[in-house]
Amino acid sequence: MKKKQIRELFKNLGIAFLLFLIIAGIFSLYSSPFEKPQEISLSALVSQINEGKVKEIEIINEEELTIKLKDGIEEKSFKEKGTGLGDSLKNYGVDPEKLALVDVRVKSVSGREFLTGMAFSILPVLLILGLLWFMLSQAQKANIQAMGFGRSLARMIKPEEQKGKKKTTFKDVAGVKEAKEELQEVVEFLKNPKKFTSLGARIPKGVLLVGPPGTGKTLLARAVANEAGVPFFHMSGSEFVEMFVGVGASRTRDLFRTAKKNAPSIIFLDELDAIGRHRGAGLGGGHDEREQTLNQILVEMDGFEPDVGVIVLAATNRPDVLDSALLRPGRFDRRVILDLPDIEGREKILEIHAAGKPLAKDVSFREVAERTPGFSGADLSNLVNEATILAARRNKKNIGKEEIFASIEKVLLGPERKSHILSKHEKKITAYHEAGHALVAASLPHTDPVHKVSIIARGRAAGYTLKLPKEDKRLRTKSEFLDELSVLFGGYVAEKLVFKELTTGATNDLEQASFLARKLVTEYGMSEKIGPISYVERPDMVFLGRDLIEKHRYSEEIARKIDQEVARFIGNACKKAKKILVKKRKKLDEIAARLIEKETIERKEFEELMKE
Ligand code: ADP
Ligand code: MG
Ligand code: ZN
User: Fold this and answer.
1) Do the bridges between strand 232-236 and strand 265-270 make them parallel or antiparallel, or are there none, so unpaired?
2) Which of 213, 232, 236, 214 is nearest to 222 (CA)?
3) Which bound ligand lies closest to the C-alpha atom of 237?
4) Probe ligand 1: pick from 209, 381, 386, max atoms within 8 Å of CB?
5) Has residue 581 got a pLDDT over 90?
6) What residues are annotated to the active site?
7) How do residues 270-305 score in pLDDT, each as one tens digit?
8) CA distances from 526 to 229, 264, 520 (A)
9) Arithmetic mean of pLDDT, 357-364
10) Quick one: 203 exposed, middle or buried, by C-beta within 10 A (0-12, 13-18, 19+)?
11) Burial status of residue 423 (CB atoms within 10 A of its CB: 0-12, 13-18, 19 or more)
């Protein structure tokens, strides 16, 4: 900031100077006309004096005379050096009385003439110099910019700059208890490294935060920096590789150098997977930009002693694709896992984000947490914000239950598209499709309760059936998956049954069903015929076209068997759905009719409808 101001000042001064030179030049042009004063002899001067025409004589350097006549004309003359003006004129017969009336001044050098003279001779030189200087400084600026590409773009956040601002602390992070405890240790080390090193403890150089998107990795890293009160260098993986080949490595070098200078400090490499992927996985040979950057990070991390007081935090949601060299001890040897929050966690996260917002009395965070399994911290933060916006749009003084529940669906399914108007026939098809999903779901034992059925378009779907689990689940069973498959086919089967015709409305359902069925067979070992063997492609293998080079790791024969099993699972699911819908055809008609009439059926109404 300061440097910039000074540079600005110099630039302004330079411009002012140039302007001055130009003005001086113009001024001197006008003030000394090229029509020089007429040169006259001394005798002519004497006669003019005697006639009383002369007003003023200026003697310059004892020999040059500038004569001003009373009518304003200027003349010039010369006398010998050494003799006074009076003596010189006397020789030509001047009238002493008349001479006494003339104003005589003596000057050694004329100031103005000297200046104009100087200006004339120096001005062009100065102008050229000024221009040169201007061009040079411009060029240098461009140069500095070009050189700057190799410098790190890390945003340094110093603890003193944070004063007065709202700091992120551990209090702002909820639902990730273990991760917080682990990082508490890092904070303690940064605050008081001697306590650890004096006992001979080896301090971790790198801590890797691993977790799905939106679980608070970036948030937590910030909190660590604030809690420890040390400078924090934040850099995102993609920034290393930006724009120019070859700068990734030099940016890395610069980042580590700066961090060491400011030790104790934290380097935070966000989205490490953008650079830290397996080397040599690319199609176009190994020596790409990312690889060099990664190598440089490895070199830097090996290059400093643990007691320097620099800790490298990194975050990723794809630990599986990271190069194994990064995970070796001595680098990111600590891993902190952040999971999606459980119900307690969600409740606390909601409390944090709703703090300071006006909430209606009927809002219970517990209830909201119950309804939001699978939501990440970012989803919950988004949910509270959406509810606030909705309340404001409805001109309410506080945020009520309805706004929050409406926002849950919005976050889950995307915004409602009420303007998406269906024709009467389309509405009927959609109603039967959704009624099919809902009816199958309600008829099978291992499914989640139906919360809402609707034929209002949301996101890309024409309608939706919202099911929410009763509680958080860590383990899923085969029966659940099979029932889920049947529910997915509920819409497809209902359309076929009622209209004897199929639409594109089931596309997404089919895609999901096929994906799930394949997982059952190749990942979960839930097919009797294939048995407990995993045929999952490791994610890094699929990365960057590696699968184009490598064939499947299993034989054609196994591939055929897998396909057969997937088809069998899907066929069975279809059959089961059809059986239910044929048997309960009357119920299906009822639900569809209600949907056409009201467009949305809530859980309570749906359950009553099912009981009748
Ligand atoms: P990540 O880096 O893991 O993808 P972020 O840290 O960027 O996720 O989280 C995005 C936002 O979500 C945060 O700014 C915060 O508002 C909210 N958030 C995420 N996790 C939590 C949490 N555990 N506690 C409180 N807020 C959270
Ligand atoms: Mg992040
Ligand atoms: Zn569907």
Assistant:
1) parallel
2) 232
3) 2
4) 381
5) yes
6) 434
7) 888 777 666 555 444 445 666 777 777 888 887 777
8) 51, 52, 5
9) 88
10) middle
11) exposed
